[in-house]
Amino acid sequence: MTVRVHPTAIVEPGVEIGPGTSVWDNVHIRGPACIGRDCIVGEKSYIAYGVEIGHRVKINAFVYVCTGVTIETGAMISAHTVFTNDRYPRATTPDLGSLRSSAPDETTGRTLVREGATIGARAVIGSDLVIGRFAMVGMGAVVTRDVPDFHLVLGHPARPHALVCRCGEPFHRIDGMLATTLPAKHCHACGRGYRVDGGRVVELEEATVPA
């Protein structure tokens, strides 16, 4: 399988792109960066140097992925999502005498988007965070805290709203805070099962197919 790069895209030296990946028009990927197999990078998106992207990742149009971000396999980053990596940004030195360097340093935040997660359109992701496995960030959300596995977060700032299945369907509503222990729950759409143990969502091995 070949890599498809639109002629208007800018792919700098040092960028590694896996087979089957498509890079669409007016994308800019800084080097060095690494993108896995069978990914889609949508039009007019920007990927900074040092970014690592796994396999079968969908990045929609107008997405900004800054230095310090790692996106694992199977994640989806919807249109107009913006990542950030500086908790206390300033343009200049304190005396206003010179511009600050844009190069990463010890204060640069590292954000990890875990496998299977979805980030909704126009979401803003704060710095130094983890978006958990198969978590879902609602459109327009502003994420300022880690998002646990299988959680749906909504709002500004984003707060937990429900637990979501691997397939994306909510299967348990959260009112305020997730219980420390929760008996088995099954997704009505695909039958996959989950329970909560010690405040963590645990997948069950068996699945009950919906009637």
Write a concise keyword list for the protein shown above.
UDP N-Acetylglucosamine Acyltransferase, domain 1, 211 residues, six-stranded parallel beta sheet, mainly beta, ten-stranded mixed beta sheet
What is the SS-derived class? Answer: mainly beta
- Beta content comes to 35-45%
Inertia-based shape: globular
Q: How far is the first residue's CA from the last residue's CA? A: 40 Å
Tell me the radius of gyration.
19 Å
Instruction: Please give the number of β-strands.
Output: 26
Q: What's the CATH class, please? A: Mainly Beta
**Main beta sheet:** 10 strands, mixed
In DSSP terms (H or I, runs of 4 or more residues), the helix count works out at 0
Low-pLDDT segments: none
CATH-defined topology: UDP N-Acetylglucosamine Acyltransferase, domain 1
Give the fraction of residues assigned to helices. Answer: under 10%
SSE sequence, one letter per element: EEEEEEEEEEEEEEEEEEEEEEEEEE
CATH architecture identity:
3 Solenoid
CATH homologous superfamily name?
Hexapeptide repeat proteins
